[in-house]
Amino acid sequence: MAWNEPGKPGDKDPWGQRRKPGAGGPDLDRIVKDIQQKLAGLFGGGSGGGSSGGGGIRTSGIGLGLIVAVALFIWLVTGFYVVNQGERGVVLRFGKKAEITEAGLRWHLPFPIEKVEKVNVEKVSTIEIGYRSNRSGGGKSKVPKEALMLTQDENIIDIEFAVQYKIKDAADYLFNVRDPETTIVQATESAVREVVGKSTLDFALTEGRDQVARSSRELLQTILDKYKTGVNIVTVETQKAQPPEEVKPAFDDAVKAREDEQRLKNEAEAYANDVIPRARGAAARYLQEAEGYKASVIARAEGDARRFTQIASEYVKAPAVTRERLYIEMMEQVLSNTTKIFIDQKAGNNLIYLPLDKLVPMGDSARAPSAMTSTESGMTPSPEVKSGASSRTREDLRRRTQ
Questions:
Q1: Distance between CA atoms of 124 and 231, rounded to whole angstroms?
Q2: Cα–Cα distance between 159 and 401 in angstroms, integer?
Q3: pLDDT digits (tens, 9 = 90+) for 185-230
Q4: Between 209-227 and 180-197, two packed helices, what is the crossing angle to 10 degrees?
Q5: In contact, 232 and 167? CB cutoff 8 Å
Q6: How many CB atoms lie within 10 A of CB 218?
Q7: What is the residue-averaged pLDDT of the chain?
Q8: CA angle, corner 381, sides to 380 and 383, nearest 5?
């Protein structure tokens, strides 16, 4: 028999407490009816003493429909979304791309039918190769695994790059690669290694830095387009290019020697640019002088030939006169270069001394220039002195012939 059966002596519960008169267990049917009445009153139903007739059923149906309508409205409202300027909204229907929306207020079928992934296509992002910037305290930390590369001449170079990119296709960026940034880092490292591997150390460190960056950008864009990542590379900038720290002092010495070599070459070129034009000018001057001398010699020879021809024709006409004239002209030419003349006479043993420099008046400074004229060989008598000497020479010749 149950422990709480009424009417037994010592009506107690299992815990030893005496039951109160009229107390009983909870009535579950009454609790359910109370809940039904409260819901019916909440949605406009009556509170008729627990009866569940046809009117109560209709009232419950209307309340349930209203709940469903409100829930459906709230669910549809959750489909509105805003795409900011510079972004693209990729609408996914059951995980598959349905459409791409532009900036503005948009609507899609709410979750779980459709959802939206927003991608900023105007933002320029930066990826660092060979180093990582410290966002908190500034500075940067090296990543030797990415920075050390081998050049064509089998030297090691420590090079760092910064890659800036934008998203050109939001759908490709979201679905074609699992981790776009990791893909860009690996593709950039591969492209830079290929370009550096085809360049020498000196070229990559000096005049070829910009060319290495341009070639790396073109190759990187080709790789990413082949992968269909939806990424457009804006720039690839060389942050630092130097030999490893272990060999940097020796490399600095080599660079200094190379700079000295270039400086000496520049000085030699400057000296050559100064000497060669002057040598060419001197050579041209010598050529012009030679041409002038050649022309003068030819003209003089032609003049002498014509003169000899004319003298020969005159000699045929009058040989004696021509000989005397030639002799006199020759004596004039010879005696014009001396200031002292000695004349030998057949009648005696004495020589006549004619000091022409004394006979010419030297005291008169006004007449001195007219008495003597300058030639290539020095001072010569003036024409008047030469004519007097010529007359005396003719007389002497005439006496000798007699």
A1: 11
A2: 111
A3: 899 999 999 999 998 888 888 788 888 889 999 999 999 999 998 8
A4: 140
A5: yes
A6: 14
A7: 76
A8: 120
**C-alpha torsion 263→266→272→275, nearest 10:** -80
pTM over 0.90: no
Q: How far apart are the first and last CA of the chain?
A: 208
Q: How far apart are CA 33 and CA 353, in angstroms?
A: 180
Burial class of 257 by CB neighbour count within 10 A (0 to 12, 13 to 18, 19+): exposed
Structure tokens at 8: 């037994």
* Runs of H (alpha helix) within 43-169: 54-77, 144-147
Asked if 108 and 91 count as a contact pair (C-beta separation under 8 A), the reply is yes
Residue 27's pLDDT is: 61
Please name which of 366, 374, 375, 343 lies closest in space to residue 356, comparing C-alpha atoms. 343
Neighbouring C-alpha atoms within 13 Å toward the C-beta of 191 = 24
- List the chain domain ranges: 60-119, 125-243, 319-401
Q: Is residue 128 packed enough to be buried (19+ CB in 10 Å), middle (13-18) or exposed (0-12)?
A: middle
Q: H helices of 132-247, where?
A: 144-147, 170-175, 180-197, 201-205, 209-227
Q: Which CATH class is domain 125-243?
A: alpha beta
- What tens digit of pLDDT does each residue of 235-291 get? 998 888 888 777 778 777 877 888 899 899 999 999 999 999 999 999 999 999 999
CA 274 – CA 281 distance, rounded (Å): 11
Q: Of 192, 203, 274, 201, which is closest to residue 244 (Cα–Cα)?
A: 201
What are the backbone angles phi and psi of residue 58, rounded to the nearest 5°? -65, -40
- DSSP letter at 17 equals P
Q: Could you give the CA distance from residue 332 to residue 387 in angstroms, rounded to a whole number?
A: 9
CB 118 within 8 A of CB 88: yes
Q: What is the token pair recorded at 255? A: 């660079």
Distance from the Cα of residue 118 to its chain's centroid? 37
Contact predicate 316/323, CB 8 Å: no
- How many residues make up the chain in this entry? 402
Copy the structure tokens of residue 285: 């001057």
Tokens, residue 340: 């002292």
Q: What is the DSSP letter of 350?
A: P
